[in-house]
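Mods, move this if it's the wrong board.
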Amino acid sequence: MDGMAPAGTPPTAAFFDLDKTIIAKSSVLAFSKPFQAGGLISRRAVLRSAYAQFVFMVGGADHDQVEKMRQFMSQLTAGWDVATVREIVADTLHNIVDPLVYDEAVRLIDEHHAAGRDVVIVSTSGSEVVEPIGALLGADRVIATRLKVEDGRYTGEIEYYAYAEEKANAIRALAETEGYDLAGSYGYSDSVTDVPMLEAVGHPHAVNPDKELRKVAASNGWPVLVFTRPVALQSRLHLPPPKPTLAALAVGGVVAVGAAVWIGTRRRSISA
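Not the wrong board. Structure tokens:
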């Protein structure tokens, strides 16, 4: 990796996907274990949301299945208080995500910062999850999907959808605002859906790539990185202890919000 840029040269950035690139699995799935313990939804809802997340991972859902799951999760999140969800995420984040962050990714983020580059996380997951993770990792900016909010509550609809080509659009818009030289910038992702994002920068990298991205990387001569060492966020970043009064409530808000985003993601990718 290049060192510090000479004075007067345009700034550059490193753009990271989140799920399976920085953290070892889906940021939504990371919150699934204590889901039922929160007591905010029924066991039936837990099972249905778990199934929805499973079909995203294996890619086996057809349009009708995904549409039904999207409607279910949209209904579940509609009316939830935004401030409460964000407080729960903030107070319980490291208990749920710990240890899922790849040590290699954390070190790479540190190297980019040392080289004077901004670090930007670009994720299809909901901002409620991505923003606090980005803050913990020291990211300078975050681009994430946003759920529509009215009067401080979720409507169950998606307002901004950070997926596929839209990630590239967002990167170019940010580069315009911040003056980033994209030709000198870096990109990292595991998924073929992020090819537009990787093509938008001069130094694309495939991280633990899926089969299709591996083919694209090979044909374009992109470096392939293999991250294998998850490290505890708490030990790596010295996080404060959680607040036990909110710990039991964590998953109700986070997984419902996150799963609604992923269902919207899967629905649109299938129908595209």
